[in-house]
Amino acid sequence: MADAAIKSARRVFEIMEFFDRARRPLGLKAICDELRYPVSSGAAMLKSLVTLGYLEYDRKTQTYLPTMRIAVLGRWVSEQLFGEIRMLPLMEELREAVPGCRFMNVYGCSEVAADATWYEVQGQRERGHTVPIGRPLANTQVYVLDEELEPVPVARTRCR
User: Fold this and answer.
1) Cα distance between residue 10 and residue 18, in whole Å
2) DSSP character for 154?
3) Which of 55, 111, 116, 151 could form an S-S bond across to 49 if both were Cys, CB 3.0 to 4.6 Å?
4) What is the pTM for the complete model shown?
5) Which pLDDT belongs to residue 129?
C-alpha cells in the first residue's frame, strides 16, 4: 500500500517521522543517508518544507528543525478521538479505585527528551489551575529565563 502513495507525500512524512525519532536538528546528509534519498531530492524536499513554514533552517549549523507549526498541526485530533477529557477528575477516580496511587507531573524540554523537574499532583489543590512543573530532579538545576534569556528571580517564577 505504501508503494501506491505519491512519493513526495510519503517522503514528507518519512522526514517528519525521522525528526520524531532523532529529536534534534538534522542536516541534509543525515536525512538523506538515513532515508536513502538522493541528495538533490532531499534538498528540494527540505527547501519546500522551509518555504511552507514546516521546517526552519539554521545557516550557521546547516541543520533543519521542525517549527511550532508541526507541533500544533494535529492538536485537535486527541480531542476529536477522546472528547473533552478532564484529567484531574480522572485522576481522582483512579486514586479512589487504586488506594496508594500517586501521580507525578514530570517535566523536561522535548528537544533533548530528558526530564528536569517533578511535581506530585494532589488533585483538589490543582483543580481549575495548571499543574506546576515542580522542583528540579536530584542532581539537577533549573533556570527560568526571560525574553532576553536572563535568569528570572525565583519569586517571579511562581504561577499566579
Assistant:
1) 12
2) G
3) 55
4) 0.51
5) 53
Start-to-end CA span in the chain (Å) = 52
- Please name the residue ranges forming H helices in the chain: 7-22, 28-35, 39-51, 68-73, 75-82, 87-97
Distance of CA 90 to the CA centre of its chain: 23
90-115: pLDDT as tens digits: 777 887 888 888 888 788 776 666 78
Residue pair 46/31 in contact by the 8 Å Cβ criterion:
yes
Q: Is 42 helix (H, G, I), strand (E, B) or coil?
A: helix
Would you state the cell numbers that stand for residue 160, as one nine-digit string? 499566579
Beta-bridge partner residues of 145: 151
Percent with pLDDT over 90 in the chain: 36
141, 143, 119: which is closest to 132 by C-alpha?
Answer: 119
Decide if domain 2-72 falls under CATH 2.40.50.140.
no
Residue corresponding to grid cell 520524531:
20
Task: Judge contact between 55 and 66, C-beta under 8 A.
Answer: yes
Q: Where are the domains of the chain?
A: 2-72, 86-156
Residue-wise pLDDT for 119-143, tens only, equals 887 765 555 556 677 888 888 888 8
- The secondary element (H helix, E strand) that includes residue 120 is strand 117-121
